[in-house]
Write a structure and sequence with these properties.
The protein is mainly α. Helices cover 71% and strands 0% of the residues. Helix 1 packs across helix 2, helix 1 packs across helix 8 and helix 7 crosses helix 8.
Amino acid sequence: MDRAPRALAVGRLVSQLCDQPIPPKAATQELVEEVDELGSIESPPVLEGFENDQNLAQRVIVYNRIFYTLWPSMAGSRVHQHAGSELNVRMAERIEWPSERRFEGASMLHIFSFGLWGRSAGEERDERTSTRGEYETRRALQSARGHVTRELIGELQEEIDRRWPEVEEILSGLEAALADPIKISEWNRESNEIEKDVRLAWHMKKAEGMTKSERESTVSAILRKSRGQHRK
């Protein structure tokens, strides 16, 4: 993707995230060029542990694209927990998925959880449960967790039904590209650019009001930190 169109895309994202007019194109393009000179923003993947399996690695790209396309304002979330947790699997089985496509329900539920709450379903369940008083017995705690879990499933179902057309569009694009190595390579490259530009826009939101030198220092620190996370 050329820098000028990317600058415009990033500017629009900043406008959406900050709820303000699109920043000047020159300023946005300057930051895009600055980041390109320093290196790409390498962020922790939405789903972890798939680096040594080519097919699973492709799924990571897909789920990353869904996450960063649907919830750019959550780009700062660290989606650290493995998607295949027992709770995610159980909850995914109770979701009425609006599609007959084959995908990992637990992984899809995982990214929807971070899109809604900025944390995993398990973390959200435990937080809500803890704010509803003390529990004298283990049975009372389990009952409260069950009630909260049902609440979360209802909220997730509502979000899934509302946002699924966007997910379907992404999955359709993937399906059309899979049979052609050149097309899937281009689709993956485009997905990586979307992630990088969404994260760049998110960091620009954080840098709002900074001086040029403060902004440059912040971008450099972000890149150093993200490279360190990527190497681990």
